[in-house]
Amino acid sequence: MIRTIIIDDEERGRRTLKTQISKYCPELEIVGEANGVQSGLEIIRHEKPDAVFLDIQMQDGTGFDLLEQIPHVNFAIIFATAYDQYAIQAFKFSATDYLLKPIDPDQLIKAVDKLQSELNSHNLSKKLEALFSNKNNFEKIALPTFDGIILVKIKEIIRCQSESNYTTLFLPKGDKIVVTKTLKDFDEMLTPLGFFRIHQSHLINMSFVNKYIKGDGGSVKMEDGTVLEVARRRKDTFLDLLLKN
Prior knowledge:
Structural class: alpha/beta
Number of helices: 8
Radius of gyration: 20 Å
C-alpha cells in the first residue's frame, strides 16, 4: 500500500478525493488529511507518507510554502487544485502529476499509475529541484527520458520535433534529447513562453529564428542552420508574431 496524505483547505474537496481514491485506487492508503500549510506540515512529519495530494492556494499559504519548510522532501507530489490552467503548465513536468478540479476519475487513475512508477525510481529529487526552480518563474523543465530525468533551461531549447509518440528537443552545440512525451504536450506548455508551432511536426523558439524565406507557406531558418517548413495555414499568424518580436 502507498501511504497517502491529502492536504486541501476545502473539506468538500478532501471528502470527494477520498471517495474517488477508495473507489478507483485501492492501492492508496489514506493515512491522514490536513486543511492548510501548518496542519499539513504536522501530519507529514508524523505520518511520513509516500505520497501527498496537495492543493496550491490555501488559507494560510500555498503548497509551495509547505514544501519549502520540509528540509528533505522524500515523497511524491500530485497537485489537486482549481488553480488556473496556465499556472499548472509551469510545473506539469515537475510534479509527479496534477489534477484539475473537479477531478476526473480517469485522470486520477493515470496519475496514480505514474505515482507508482515514480516511487519505484530514484528521480524524485531531480523533479522536485525543477519544481522549486519554477515556483516564481518558469525557467526549467524536467524532461522524462529513457535514462531518467534531465533538467533543461527553456531559453536554451531551440526547437522541438515530433517523432510519433516521442519528441526530440534540439539544444545549442548540437545536443539532442529524446523525450517520452508528444509534441502536443510541449506545444501547450511552451507556446505561452515564446514558442510557436509552425508545422504539425515542428515547435520553435522564436528567439532562435534567423530568417524567414518566402514561399507557399514559406520556411524558417534557425540559428543552428536548420531550415524548417512553415505550414500554409500557420503562415499569417507566424509572420504577425515574428514582426512583433
